[in-house]
Amino acid sequence: MLDRAVADTTAKNTKNEPTRRVHFRGAGFVPASSRYGGWIGLGLVIAIWQAAGSAGLVNALFLPTPSAIVRAIYQLAVSGALWQHVSASLLRICVGWLLGTAAGVAVGFAIGLSRLARSVGITFISALFPIPKIALLPLLILWLGIGEEPKIATIALGVFFSTAISVYSGVDAVPRNLIRMAQSFNVPFATIVRKVIWPGALPAILAGFRITASVALLLVVSAEMIGAQYGIGAFVLQAGNLMQTDQLLAGVVILSVFGLAVGKVIGWLEMRLLHWR
Description:
Largest sheet: none
InterPro entries: MetI-like, MetI-like_sf
Pfam family, one: BPD_transp_1
Domain ABC transmembrane type-1: 86-266
Main location: membrane
Strand content: under 5%
Transmembrane segments: 39-61, 90-113, 120-146, 152-171, 215-236, 248-269
CATH class: Mainly Alpha
């Protein structure tokens, strides 16, 4: 009786108390960001940089002002040299990236789905992946001759290994209970790969694409610095040798814009292909 009386008293007191709102705590680790925060921060950095250069606090030879860099880009665009260098680099990047990605996706899925391919493929990838691909450029020139082929092959090799690793890692990350459930319903192997494994591995594959795009950009600049007449890498090297730092940084800005554009494209692909997450 005493316990029931205590319970009734507690219930009445609770009922009389005002309702207190509790904050929702399940929204942690949500990948949300400010829409304009990054651009505002970038604008502030550029404004401070321009002010420091205009006030003479920074030597223009070592660090030209943003206005000088924009002027150099405009002069390159008017003269036509900008499009000549950019088109040469884009051609090499696109062809090398597509070849390396196609081969990497095929080998990555083979390693993820086949025991024989895994035992052989991982050994070769582990042995060859740490080798700097730009170090193979002289050998590729001996094999393929002087021209576009060695540069494209260098990019394709660098993209291939990173893509293969991201693909078979994504295949391994697919929950095995989903695959077993599909097998228990006698779903054909090709359908399991298309409907279960491919969607499950797609986040890792797209994340790998972000990495391989940067790898392709680094390799094309390095290859053009070693042996090319046209291209962003060759242009940056020439500007550096002549101490034309405004044009050198103009090339760097162009590379940065290209990286931003690739990131936007991959982000759009993630929104379209991974809308189910």
